[in-house]
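Z., the sequence and structure:
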Amino acid sequence: MQPSAAPDLADLAHTHARPAHWLATATATAAVVALAGLLQPGPAEAGASPAAAPRPAPAPDAAGADYPLECGGGPRTVAQRVAGDLDGDGNPETIAVVHCEAGSGTPPSGVYVLTRGKKDGTPARVVATLVAPEQHRNVTELAVRDGAVRATLLGYSSPDVPSCCPDEKEQVSWRWQGGAFVRGDQADARGV
């Protein structure tokens, strides 16, 4: 038999992996992965196109709205306000708790839903009244969670209860359904 002109594979240097070889391979692989990460578009650039959706408008300003609240010529106070997208259009609405200013006592609150004016620069407009002042309720907590308005209302069991000291408390919620705000299930009113 004639010896082969090809060298024996066991004698070639590159067929014997040494720790330095593995370290060099791992370093090169890490560098390629890091470079690929740097060359990727950022989250704001991903899928960006000239027709990208505009950012949602800011929530309507509760201070400039015209509320359906009669204060006998006296001033109104926006006591609380929260914002959230209630109708799923991607733009936030503002929910405002408003009452007449009073020197003493506890004036009843109104809870109103505001949207942006029809034109830029026009004040926010009231699109729904969730609690009318005629219901003689006060709001202690107000929030928007999971697309629903949630509030804690204090009220009175009878007209004989002094207005300083509400004796009923209830947790309520409203959700936009079928073109209107629907009051959700609630626990029975309970004493404070």
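The radius of gyration is 33 Å. The first strand starts at residue 76 and ends at 84.

Let me know what you think.
H.
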